[in-house]
Amino acid sequence: MVLSMDRWVGKVAIVTGASSGIGAAIADALVEQGLIVLGVARRSERIEERAKQLSDKKGKLHAIKADLTKEEDILTVFKWAKDNLGPVHILINNAGTAAYTNLTDGKTEDWKTVFDLNVLALSIATREAVKIMKENKINGQIVHVNSVLGHQVLSFPGLSVYPASKFAVTALTETLRQELNHQGLKIKITSVSPGLVESELTTLNTKQSPERKAAIEKMSILKSEDIANGVVYVLSTPEHVQIHELTIRPL
C-alpha cells in the first residue's frame, strides 16, 4: 500500500476545536501537507496567531469563530468555507468536552453540554460536510476524533457521561459508514480513538480534583502530535482503502 497525501494538496479541510491540543496539532499538520485548512473554535484568535506562524508553509490556515453547540454557528462555518475557500474535502470532527462530575450528583446542564458538543455538533457538521461532498461529487474523508473510552468504560474518577458520548461516536461512525455504502458514495469515515492525551482536558486542566490529578500523573500519556500523525496516516491511504477504526495508545 502506497501512502501519499498528494491528492489532498490544495483541497479544503475543516478542523473543529482547532485552537489547542489535538485540533491545533491536526490543523498544523494538514497545513504542512499543503491543505487549505479552516480551523474552527470559540478562541479563534489562537488560530489566527498560528496562521501567522505557518505563513511560509505549503498550505494555509484560516480561522473562524464559532460555538459548535449552536447549530446556526455550524451552518455559518460551512457556508463561509464554501463561499470563501471552496468545497470541503475533509472534515475532522475534533471538538469535544468533558464534565468531571458523577452520575449520582452531576448537573444536568453539564451533561447536556457534553452531548451537545461531542454528539450533536459532530452529527450536524458531518451532515453538512456530506451534503457538500455529494453536491460536488467529492470522494472525501471524515474523521471523528473518538476515545478509547468510546469502546470501553475504565475505572477512573469523574468520567460521568463522557464515555456515553464517545460510545455514541463509535455507533455514529458505523451508522454513517453503512449509510454511505447504501448510497453508493465513496466518502470515507474513520474513528480515531486515542488513549490519554496531554491537553486542556487532562494534564493541563487547572480545575480538576486532586484525586483526578493524582490518577492522571500515574498514567502514560500521548502528545497531540501523535494523534495528528495518525490522522495524516488515515488520509494518506489510497482511495479504495478505508481505515474504519484507528486506536492510538501510549506504551
Describe this structure in words.
This protein is of the alpha/beta class. It contains seven helices and seven strands. The chain has helices spanning 21-32, 44-53, 71-84, 108-135, 162-182, 210-217, 224-236, and strands at 12-16, 36-41, 60-65, 88-93, 141-145, 188-194, 245-248. It has a seven-stranded parallel sheet, sandwiched between helices. Strand 1, helix 1 (21-32) and strand 2 (36-41) form a beta-alpha-beta unit. Helix 1 (21-32) crosses helix 7, helix 3 (71-84) packs parallel to helix 4 (108-135) and helix 4 (108-135) packs parallel to helix 5 (162-182). It is globular and about 50 Å long. The protein starts with 11 loop residues before the first strand and ends with a strand. The model has no long low-confidence stretch (mean pLDDT 93).
Which of globular, elongated, flat, extended, rod-shaped describes the shape?
globular
**Secondary-structure class:** alpha/beta
Stretches where pLDDT falls below 50 for ≥5 residues?
none
- Series of H and E elements: EHEHEHEHEHEHHE
Helix content range of the residues, please?
40-55%
Proportion of strand residues: 15-25%
The count of strands amounts to 7
Strand order of the largest sheet: 3-2-1-4-5-6-7
Distance separating the two termini: 26 Å
Q: Quick one: biggest sheet? A: 7 strands, parallel
The radius of gyration is 17 Å
Distinct helical segment count:
7
How confident is the prediction overall: mean pLDDT? 93
